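Exercise 7 asks you to align residues with tokens for two separate proteins.
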Amino acid sequence: MHGLLALTLVGSIPEREMQLWTEPGLRQRISEGLEQAAHGKTHDRGDFSPYLEDTDEDWQVVYEYRFTDDANATLTRLEARGAAEAAKLK
């Protein structure tokens, strides 16, 4: 008996990680952020636990985050924009 057996490797990517494969540029931005963090270019943004809606048992939950220089600058701009928009409503 002769024949051909073809095996296809199948990997499973958890849904929460799928974005890394589907969003262009995301892996590069994460790599850059890890590089910045490795060089100590981070900023403490405090406790984010009040914003948690649910916890994932597969992950160790960390409530205090440190942001890279680029991410911190973006958050600071967004906070300023939000404050300006809120001031307009008063």
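Second protein for Exercise 7:
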Amino acid sequence: MAKPNYQYEKRQKELAKKRKQEEKRLRKLEQSNTQPQDNPDRPPPAVTPQTDAS
């Protein structure tokens, strides 16, 4: 009986993970590019700095 090739399985898992991360990055990039075009008369929300109350 042949022994399992764990390095191959690990490499395939890593490639799938990288592919998924790249797709997610592209989706986020596309979403950020389309969002401002949907509401051109509405400015982006202002970021307010968080202050520590202690």
